[in-house]
Write a structure and sequence with these properties.
The complex is a heterodimer of chains A (about 375) and B (about 400). With about 375 residues, chain A is of the alpha+beta class. Chain A is built from 15 helices and 13 strands. In chain A, α6 packs parallel to α10.
């Protein structure tokens, strides 16, 4: 099956997908409740899209296509309200966060769907360890070439999104010392990491993909777990490095930070992306996963070190005019607040653990965040 | 037989019986895929003195207290898994509970009348029939690691119908005392006072222990130990005062849960301590039975079991859709509520001191207990497996 043609979509449109945790409100462990939840959700119209994920303790929601921050946020809030209503009726709690702090991966139940069963059979314990929760942001692109340009131009900014969204400090019952332990789970997959440095869609399609497909390693774009991947059937690129934030407000802010960034990049105000950018890619990515906003980045060209926090603040200043054009300053204000003082969700969860002393209370506070929004 | 040999037999009877029951559990699981607790019960029945076995009648002596302790721990755990907020968020759960419990009561009372059972035993049998054995439910659901709506609803409905059953039972007891002896004080004491004081004791434990834990600190390390010891103390106190350990420990768990000191996964069933006590509890329950009683009321037992199941299935299925699950899952919730035995026996044991040996008067009860001891765990397991909530059950 050849790769499908890259569908044109309006530039800078965006859509958000959130993978959420389903939690038992009594013991705060994950609860394999997605079949029950989906059953009840089917009975009425849902303000977005909802589907099962690989483990029955996860659920994925998606917004429609948006151009404005306020509209995106409004839909995310409607989705949240619908989920909470159904969850309350079934005694199932929900929360964000990139990992569940103390769930045991071997207890997870794989959703009864052929593709998930196949993935589970192929990857064995990796599939169950993949019980992690991410936010995916789609950005519309007019053509495949434009999509690949944007994908590679964004490579220097990937650590920003990891650090800003980091909400998975705990995994399997311990503090991992990472702000995003989730990405370590994703990294275990053979086809994860960065996309190959190809800038023309035809070369990607007929060169890279076709060759790889012939080897039988992949059959569709779904087999790639790249940090950013093109999605030809939507006409988008999809940023996949974010942990699901604790609030939908943060999720909307991250999406609009990306949108404004893309607007700046598409104006071609920066040096074009180069293969050499990727020399430091994994190092910078690690810094963001491990240290969050306290990490430091290395510039691929000059080799100089700059703090991640500084780099985000500088970027915020640079994209201010784009945010004004997109009417998304509120989103950038939230990002600025994270960098300046409040910290990311990982530091919020660690503070909670230090105060309350148990991982169960960490989950409880995450549930509260999702329900109420804000911190 | 020389005295020394008799002493050895008497003193080793219980540990030996436990070992045999454990073996029966493992073999029953391997050969017949029978839940272990079903085999424990069968072993207890066969080994009892009444059946020619070597186990003395367990009702007199310390075994009754130990059984109360074992059950107390289970009820505490059940209480701890109940979210009262759910009743507010989804009132249909409460409606289902009241209807299934009242329906079971009414249906069984009618059957008992039809079998010409006297009024008081008939009322008591009906009260007992309301309940679903939490021991079986908690055990099976923990063993199968099930999660989902059938699991959650079974736990909640079991807790509620047990609480309702204790209340109704104690009121029937009060009525019996009033009718028999005419002493108002005795009647009120054994119904209202017992209920209120037992629940109040449980609630105060539920408030005090989490507070204590918070002061002492180290919640993650100490929580299992201190809750187990507190449950032990609570059972001992209520047992000595002839109050209701059942209601007290259930209230303890409920209160402790809503005071929010998290009980982590590892402490389900209270670990090995819980395993031993559960084994003992299930052997104890059926060792109180006599095959002659079982045979005497067998026919009625079957009818009572059938109408009780029908009432529970009807209620859970009827309110399935409005309460937010499929008909299928509603029906299976009713099926999962089948177990009865342990709760019934312990409830009855507590009436002995009043000179009421109900198990002799209610001919059908021994049969019901024995049948449901074997079938109950199976029904609960089938329910969660058929609901797709317990894939682990396939490996047993």
């Amino acid at each position: 099956m050849a790769l499908e043609a890259f569908k044109t979509s309006a530039p800078l449109t965006m859509g958000v997908e959130l993978e959420l945790q389903l939690v038992n409100p009594t013991d705060f462990d994950l609860s394999a409740s997605s079949p029950d939840l989906l059953h009840l959700l089917e009975r009425k119209s849902f303000p977005g899209d909802v589907k099962p994920e690989i483990a029955e303790s996860m659920i994925e929601v998606a917004t429609g296509i948006h151009t404005r921050h306020d509209e995106l946020l409004a839909q995310l809030r409607e989705i949240r309200a619908a989920l909470l209503e159904v969850g309350d009726r079934l005694n199932v709690a929900m929360c964000g966060g990139g990992t569940h702090p103390f769930q045991r991966w071997f207890h997870q139940r794989i959703f009864a769907k052929p593709r998930y069963r196949q993935v589970s059979a192929l990857y064995g314990y990796l599939a169950k360890q993949f019980t992690v929760f991410g936010q995916h942001v789609h950005i519309g692109c007019p053509s495949g070439d434009e999509a690949l340009f944007l994908l590679h131009a964004l490579n220097r900014y990937v650590p920003h999104f990891i650090a800003l969204s980091g909400s998975s400090p705990y995994s399997q019952g311990v503090d991992t010392l990472f702000d995003s332990a989730r990405l370590n789970s994703v990294f275990a997959f053979p086809l994860s990491g960065r996309a190959p440095f190809v800038l023309e869609w035809s070369a990607f399609e007929h060169g890279y993909f076709a060759k790889l497909e012939k080897t039988g390693v992949v059959t569709s774009m779904k087999d790639f777990y790249w940090d950013i991947r093109p999605k030809p059937e939507f006409g988008t690129i999809e940023l996949r490095v974010c942990d699901t934030p604790l609030t939908v407000e943060r999720a909307a802010a991250l999406a609009c930070y990306l949108q404004a960034l893309c607007r700046m990049l598409l104006a071609r105000k920066e040096d074009p992306p180069a293969e050499d950018d990727y020399l430091v890619y994994n190092y910078n990515r690690f810094q963001a996963c491990r240290f969050g906003l306290d990490g430091s980045l290395i510039h691929p060209g000059t080799g100089e070190t700059i703090s991640l926090r500084e780099d985000i603040l500088a970027t915020l200043r640079r994209i201010e005019p784009d945010a004004i054009m997109l009417d998304s300053q509120a989103a950038l204000d939230e990002i600025r607040a994270v960098v300046h003082g409040a910290g990311n969700d990982a530091s919020f969860l660690r503070r909670c653990h230090a105060r309350e002393g148990s991982l169960e209370s960490v989950v409880e506070s995450a549930i509260g965040c999702f329900r109420k929004g804000g911190e | 037989m020389p005295d020394i040999l008799r002493n050895v037999i008497v003193e080793t009877a219980w540990p030996a019986a436990l070992l045999i029951a454990w073996l029966a559990g493992e073999l029953g699981q391997r050969w017949f895929r029978l839940p272990r607790i079903s085999s424990y019960g069968l072993a207890g029945f066969v080994l009892a003195a009444a059946q020619g076995g070597f186990l003395p009648d367990p009702a007199d002596g310390s075994m009754a207290l130990l059984a109360d302790v074992a059950f107390g721990l289970i009820l505490f755990e059940l209480g701890y898994r109940i979210n009262l907020g759910w009743l507010r968020a989804n009132p249909w759960i409460g409606v289902t509970s009241v209807v299934e419990a009242a329906g079971s009561f009414a249906a069984v009372f009618v059957v008992a009348q039809w079998f010409e059972m006297p009024m008081v035993p008939a009322l008591m049998l009906a009260a007992i029939a309301m309940s679903t054995s939490p021991a079986v439910v908690v055990r099976v659901l923990n063993e199968t690691r099930s999660s989902g709506q059938v699991t959650e609803r079974t736990l909640h409905l079991s807790a509620f119908n047990c609480a309702l059953a204790v209340v109704v039972f104690k009121f029937v007891l009060g009525y019996w005392m009033l009718a028999g002896t005419g002493t108002v004080l005795g009647a009120v004491w054994n119904s209202l006072v017992v209920l209120v004081v037992s629940a109040a004791l449980g609630v105060s434990f539920g408030a005090a222990i989490p507070a204590l834990l918070r002061i002492v600190g180290g919640a993650e390390r100490n929580v299992t130990l201190v809750f187990a010891v507190a449950a032990l103390l609570l059972v001992a106190v209520t047992h000595a005062l002839k109050f209701s350990p059942l209601l007290a420990t259930l209230a303890f768990g409920l209160m402790a849960r809503h005071r929010r000191v998290a009980l982590s996964q590892a402490q389900r069933n209270f670990g090995v301590l819980g395993d031993i006590l559960t084994l003992m509890l299930f052997v104890f329950v059926t060792a109180t039975l006599d095959w002659r009683q079982v045979m005497a009321g067998f026919q009625m037992a079957l009818v009572v079991i059938a109408v009780r199941m029908a009432a529970k299935l009807a209620a859970t299925t009827l309110f399935a859709y409005v309460s937010g699950v499929s008909w299928h899952k509603g029906f299976l919730t009713g099926l999962a509520l089948t177990p009865l035995s342990v709760f019934a026996i312990l409830l009855l044991e507590q009436t002995r001191h009043l000179g009421l040996t109900l198990i002799d008067e209610v001919a059908a009860l021994a049969g019901i207990v024995l049948i449901l001891e074997v079938v109950g765990p199976l029904a609960t397991r089938w329910a969660v497996v058929w609901a797709g909530e317990a894939p682990a059950a396939r490996e047993g």
